[in-house]
Amino acid sequence: MGELSSVWRESSHRYRLVAHGCGNCKAVYFPPRDICPKCHRDSIGKMKEMELSGRGKIESFTVVHDVPPAFIRQRPYVLALIRLDEGPTLTAQVVDCDPSEVALGKRVRSVFRRVREDGKSGIIQYGYKFVLE
Amino acid sequence: MLKDGTDMSGIISYGSYIPKYRIKPDEIARVWGEDPENIRNGIYILSKSVPSPDEDVATISVEAARNAIKRRKVNPADIGAIYVGSESHPYAVKPTATIVASAIGADFRLFSADYEFACKAGTAGMQNVKAMVDSGMIKYGMAIGSDTSQGAPGDALEYSASAGGTAFIIGKEDPIAEINDTLSVTSDTPDFWRREGQPYPTHGERFTGEPAYFKHTIGAAKMIMERMKTKPEDYNYAVFHQPNGKFPTRAAKSLGFTEEQFSDGLLTPVIGNTYSGSMMTGLSAILDKASPGDRILAVSFGSGAGSDAFDLTVTDKMDEVDRNSAPTIKEMLSKVKWIDYAIYAKFKKKIVFGESVD
Ligand SMILES: [Zn+2]
Prior knowledge:
The complex is a heterodimer of chains A (133) and B (358). By secondary structure, chain A is mainly beta. Chain A is built from 2 helices and 8 strands. Chain A has helices at 2-9, 11-16, and strands at 18-22, 28-29, 47-51, 55-64, 77-84, 89-94, 107-117, 124-132. Chain A has a 5-stranded antiparallel beta sheet. In chain A, strand 1 (18-22) and strand 2 form a beta hairpin. Chain A is globular and about 50 Å long. Chain B has helices at 25-32, 36-43, 57-72, 96-104, 121-134, 208-228, 246-255, 259-262, 268-271, 278-287, 329-334, 341-347; strands at 10-17, 21-23, 48-50, 79-85, 111-115, 140-148, 163-171, 177-186, 192-193, 202-203, 237-240, 295-299, 306-314, 337-338. In chain B, strand 12 and strand 13 form a beta hairpin. In chain B, helix 1 (25-32) crosses helix 2 (36-43). Mean pLDDT of chain B is 94; it is low at 1-5. Chains A and B meet through helix 2, strand 7 and strand 8 of A and helix 3 and helix 4 of B. Zinc ion is lined by residues 22, 24-25, 27, 36, 38-39, 43 of chain A.
C-alpha cells in the first residue's frame, strides 16, 4: 500500500506536470520542491505552484531493448532526457514513433498515457510521456 | 427549446483525440482469408485507428478534454460536471471521470460519473450536462464520448472497432453552437451486447440493421425535425452514428440529406467505428469548418437500443475562436502510422502472455 499512496500523492505532478517556481530567483523545479535549493530560507513561503506547458526538446536519449516484462509490447522504447521550455529537465518515454526518428534537439510535447499497470487486478498508473512535435 | 434564444445553452468548446496508428481492412482480411474488396464495399471502411499499448479510454478522454479546454482557454475550475461515456472504461469499478478530473485540474467540488449506453453514452452525457447548465446547477459541464472497443479476432467487428474520443464543454455564456433542442428514443432491442467479464461483444445479427440502427436513428431524426418544424434542406450539416460507412449514408439518404450535408461528419471510412466517440467526433469535424448561422442535425445511436438527437446552430462566437489552437480532425487524420496485423495483435493484446506480462 506504500507504493499506492505515493502514486496517489504524486498524481498532480505526474498528471498535469505541476512544478514549483521560486518566487525569489524564478527557478522552476520539477518535481516540485518546497524550498529552493539556491535560495534556501529566502524561498520559504515563496514557492508557487505552476503547470508546465509540456513542451520541450530532447537533450539526450537511449533506446531500451532489454525491457521489463510489462513493457514487452513497447520494445524497443525510447527513454529521453527532456529539457522543458520553462527550464527543468525530466526523464520520460518518447512514444508513437520509431527509435530512428528520435534525435537530439528534436521538439517534443507531453501526452497523457498509461505508465504502469500493477498486474491484472492492481491500480493503473497514468502520467506523462512525450511525442515528437 | 422554447427559450428566448438569448441565454440558450450550447457548446462552449470541443476537442477530440484519435490515436495515431492505423490498419487497413486488406491487412485484416489477409490474415482471415477474406476478400478485402468485399469488406471495403460491404461496410465501406478503408482504414481504422488503433490505440498504442499505453492508450486506453482514460488517456483518450484526457487528451480530448485537454484539447477542448485549450481551444477556448476554459478555466477548469469553471467545469462543474464531468461525465464520460464509454463501453471500454479501463476499470470495471473506478470511474474514468475521476482520472479526467484530476488530469485537467478540475475542482474538488464536482459532479461526475461514468455513463454506459453502448455507443450513445457520450451524447447521453451531453444531454445531462445541458440540463444541469439550464437548471443553474453548474456553469460549464463536460461530456466525453470515448472508446477503445474490440471485435473478436476474425469477427466482422474486427474490421470496424477502433479508438478515439471527443469532449464537449457545454454552457450558457457565448456558446459557439447553440443546442436548439435535444430528444431521445429508447427500446429494449437485442442487437448487440457484452456480458460482464467477456472480452468481446456479441451481435444479434438479425437485429443490427432495421430494428435497431435505422429504426432509432431515423426515428429520432424525424421526431426532432417534426418538433423543430424543420426539413433536411434547413440543415447545412448532418451527422449520424457510424458503426460502418454504409449505415449512416443509408440513413442520411433515406431521410433526404445529400452527400454535401453528411460527408464532412462521416469519419468511419477512415478511422473506423469509435463507438461512443463516433457521432461526437463527426460533429467535432463539422465544428472544425462550420460558419456562423450553419445549422447541424446530429443523431447518435447506442445498441440495446436508443438514439439521442440534437439540433444545433453555430453562433457568431465561432469567428472569435481560434479553432487551430487545438488539433483539428483533419490534422489528426493526416499524421498517421500504418501497422500490420501482427503489430495490431500485439498492441490490442490479442497475443496473450503468461502471468508476469500484461
Ligand atoms: Zn530560488
